[in-house]
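Example record

One chain of 182 residues, shown exactly as stored in the release files.
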Amino acid sequence: MHFWSGIMKHWSDKLTYSPCVAAWAWLQIQPDPQTAWEKSKRGDWMLYHAGKLAGEPGSDARRPLVLAACECARLVLLRVKAGETRPLLAIEAAERWARGGADAPTLQEVRRAADAAYAAAAAADAAYAAADAAYAAAYAAYAAADAAYDAADAAAAAEAARAKTLAICADIVRKHYPKVPI
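Predicted structure tokens for this chain:
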């Protein structure tokens, strides 16, 4: 129960973490967790929620989260400078880990790939979100949407692009988590 809620009055009071103010306000008008999950157009909020409940880093329970995050992160690869492969390599390493199998890298190898992607982002200011496999999509959605702000388009066009990217990410998250993680 959240410290400001006093007595539990709504299903969202049972959350064991505090979502951002905007997410909290939106949750308050949803009748139940599954409806909120199905209606959400905010992939970043959904990844945050799943990440809070998906188990410890490196656990098998995090594999669907990593796959969803990687799929969302791929949305911003078109913003990466031509010839820069480190963000893609980081995503691919995380995906191989999440799928398991003989060619799966260790978590240490995934982290090295993520570190290399961070270095690429620092050098070229590109696809910074792709580096962190577990949370990449939350930031990738913002990066893809924020890229629209660089264009000379009006603020409305930029917000529409951001909303579209977040909605695509929401659908991706639902593909990996059809039922809301609770």
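Notes: Residues 47 and 138 are 6 Å apart (CA to CA).
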